[in-house]
Amino acid sequence: MANILTACxxxxxxxxxxxxxxxxxPYVMHPLSVANRVSAYTNDDNVIMAAILHDVVEDTSMTIxxxxxxxxxxxxxxxxxxxxxxxxxxxxxxxxxxxKKLSPMAxxxxxxDALDNLDDLSTALWPEEKxxxxxxxxxxxxxxxxx
Length: 147
Known about the structure:
147 residues; 9 helices
C-alpha cells in the first residue's frame, strides 16, 4: 500500500521543474506545505496524501485513474473533488472553486491550499492588479470555506 513518502515522490515527479509564481521556488513546495498545514488537524494518512497530491491532476499529466491505481479510492476521490477540469478557463475556475460543495476533508485541504497561496502572494512576480484580483478571490474563498 502506498504511503505519504510515495505521495511525495509522485508529487515531485509530476510537478517536475515547475516553479511557484516567484519564479524560483519549486512548485512541489506548495503541496508539501499544504499537507504540513493539514497534518495539524488530522493524522489521517489518506487526507495528508491527498493534500500532497491535490494539484497533480489539475496541473500535470497525472490522472485520477493513475492515482487510484497507485494509492486508493479515498485519496483519488479527494483529489478528484478538489480538481477543476483543465478545459475550464482560469476566470471560470475561480467561480467554480468558490461554488463547489466539498466534503469536510476536501474542505480542510482546500482551505489550507488557499491560505498557503495567500501567504505566497507577496512574492509572486505578477502585476499588482493580478495580485489584487487573486487576493480578492482567495479572501472570498477562505471566508466561504470557514463558514
